[in-house]
Amino acid sequence: MAIAGAGAVGRSIAAELLENGHEVLLIDKSPAAIAVEQVPQAEWLLADACEITSLDEAALQRCNVVIAATGDDKVNLVVSLLGKTEYGVPRVVARVNNPKNEWLFNESWGVDVAVSTPRLMSALVEEAVSVGDLVRLLRFSQGDANLVELTLPPESALAGTRVGDVRWPEDTSLVTIIRGSRVLTPTAEDSLEEGDELLFVAAQAREGQLEELLSARREPERPRREDHPEESGEEL
């Protein structure tokens, strides 16, 4: 995979990907950014990622992922568009520096996943303090889908229900259950528990239905009526 932008963000991404066994090419036009000694396992290319000749040299058509991680939104959009339209890269991830530009980072510009640091930080804060509220963590451009999270409140009607017995909204998929220190891949037999952090990929149009389903309160138990001998006609 190729990363356009070899600054602190690009190098950090490269180091993580290399640690996970991926081959990584870092591209930057600034000689000062070419710090081979900081990520020695990566390939490096001193070039302008907005130029077709540079991307030809990088053999971008061989990459399965391109990450546009520069500090300039205009550059990230151009890299994304070229990667998708000229080289047919299957997956394009782009960094959004200015939240005002977020609306541009969609499939029209070749972006499959847009990562906005301010939005992600605010989402993580909401996720840390919210129980029973749906939190949007990440937006996927294709299919108008989002990665969303909800912590199941104690009073949820779904607490104790098997995953396979829940009628989830259309265009919604439960992908992970985080329970304490465990990360569970949900099966139909798994039961939902209060306090579970549930991660879904869901169409934006279904988010309201999903939140309503997960936050619906269980019916309070009615007090059981005790039988009294005088009411049953029995003698004392």
UniProtKB/TrEMBL annotation:
Residues 211-236 are annotated as: Disordered. It holds the Pfam family TrkA_C. The keyword Nucleotide-binding does not apply. Residues 214-236 have a biased composition (Basic and acidic residues). InterPro entries: NAD(P)-bd_dom_sf (IPR036291), RCK_C (IPR006037), RCK_C_sf (IPR036721), RCK_N (IPR003148), Trk_Ktr_HKT_K-transport (IPR050721). Keywords: Ion transport, Transport. Residues 135-216 form the RCK C-terminal domain. Residues 1-115 form the RCK N-terminal domain. The keyword Transport applies. This is TrkA family potassium uptake protein. It comes from Streptomyces macrosporus.
